[in-house]
């Protein structure tokens, strides 16, 4: 029954030119243009999802539908791709809008800092200034979400949810130890074979390969949206480039920002699953357990800040 309801939820796919780059946006709900919608039925809040890396929005469609369903269809749920991670299919219309007149040119839009600026530019030009925002970040999307809170204080973000955050010491994680040499040292050597192998493939072969890969990973294919970006050389190059910057730049946790914005930030991690994964991984158990401890103490750090604020507030009321 639940799955039937989710299937009926409208999800609209758009490709928008944001900062000069094609950007895929999945919009869950009947609202597609919040800026020009002046009707009384316009929602007061938008749920905005920032993906991990790769930033393939289509994988988040079931999650967006579930969120939309859980709010009883009161609020739109949008998922944005990362700049350079999605290309519009042939014949697909790309929407253009006037950019923020105060926005500065993004020099390295495919890099980590550029992706933050890309999301800020989108929110400033495609979401009404008075509309409240709930931002949900996944993986590196959590780091981007925190940077949005830090550099976009004018945005009315009331909550920021961090799903399995990667906001510190990425290169020290089990996957990071494998990924770092690949994306930082051997990345350029991989570009030529990727282009030579994948560029000549026709669309139907790419589509077949994507379905096979998803089946091997036990992932359900969101068939209503194109996933050919998984095998598009330019998209894969941008994915690798972003990953290389993540490994080099996401090192120290930004405690000052977290402390400043603790009232808005909520950490969502299945600690039991993380601990089970750490114990089961014989290859790198110590590093996995260290990651578990860091996530656990990040949660305690947030709780302690909120508790101290609550106590100081209560004390000041008693003093009065």
Automatic annotation (TrEMBL):
Uppermost EC category: hydrolase
Gene Ontology MF: a single term: sterol ester esterase activity
InterPro entries: AB_hydrolase_fold, LDAH
Catalytic activity: a cholesterol ester + H2O = cholesterol + a fatty acid + H(+)
GO biological process per UniProt: cholesterol homeostasis; intracellular triglyceride homeostasis; lipid droplet fusion; lipid storage
Principal subcellular localisation of the protein: endoplasmic reticulum
Localization per Swiss-Prot or TrEMBL: Endoplasmic reticulum; Lipid droplet
GO CC aspect terms: endoplasmic reticulum; lipid droplet
Positions in coiled-coil regions: none
Similarity comment text for this entry: Belongs to the AB hydrolase superfamily. LDAH family.
Protein name: Lipid droplet-associated hydrolase
UniProt organism field: Sus scrofa
Taxonomy of the source species: Eukaryota, Metazoa, Chordata, Craniata, Vertebrata
């Amino acid at each position: 029954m639940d799955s039937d309801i989710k299937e009926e939820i409208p999800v609209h796919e758009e490709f928008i030119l944001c900062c000069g780059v094609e950007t895929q946006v999945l919009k869950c709900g009947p609202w597609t243009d919040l800026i020009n919608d002046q009707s009384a039925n316009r929602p007061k809040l938008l749920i905005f999802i920032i993906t991990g890396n790769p930033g393939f929005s289509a994988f988040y469609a079931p999650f967006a539908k579930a969120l939309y369903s859980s709010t009883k269809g009161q609020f739109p749920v949008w998922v944005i791709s990362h700049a350079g991670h999605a290309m519009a299919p042939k014949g697909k219309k790309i929407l253009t809008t006037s950019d923020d007149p105060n926005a500065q040119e993004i020099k390295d839009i495919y890099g980590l800092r550029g992706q933050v600026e890309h999301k800020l530019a989108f929110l400033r030009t495609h979401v009404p200034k008075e509309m409240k925002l709930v931002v949900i970040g996944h993986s590196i999307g959590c780091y981007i979400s925190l940077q949005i809170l830090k550099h976009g204080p004018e945005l009315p973000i009331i909550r920021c949810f961090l799903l399995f955050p990667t906001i510190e010491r990425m290169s020290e994680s089990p996957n990071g130890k494998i990924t770092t040499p690949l994306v930082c040292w051997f990345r350029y050597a991989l570009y030529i074979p990727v282009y030579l192998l994948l560029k000549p493939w026709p669309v139907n072969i790419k589509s077949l390969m994507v379905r096979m890969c998803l089946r091997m990973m036990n992932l359900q294919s969101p068939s209503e949206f194109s996933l050919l970006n998984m095998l598009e050389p330019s998209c894969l190059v941008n994915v690798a480039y972003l990953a290389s910057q993540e490994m080099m730049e996401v090192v120290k946790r930004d405690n000052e920002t977290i402390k400043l914005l603790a009232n808005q930030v909520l950490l969502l991690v299945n600690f039991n699953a993380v601990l089970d994964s750490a114990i089961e991984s014989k290859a790198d158990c110590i590093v996995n357990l260290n990651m578990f401890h860091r996530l656990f103490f990040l949660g305690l750090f947030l709780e302690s800040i909120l508790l101290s604020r609550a106590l100081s507030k209560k004390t000041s009321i008693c003093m009065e």
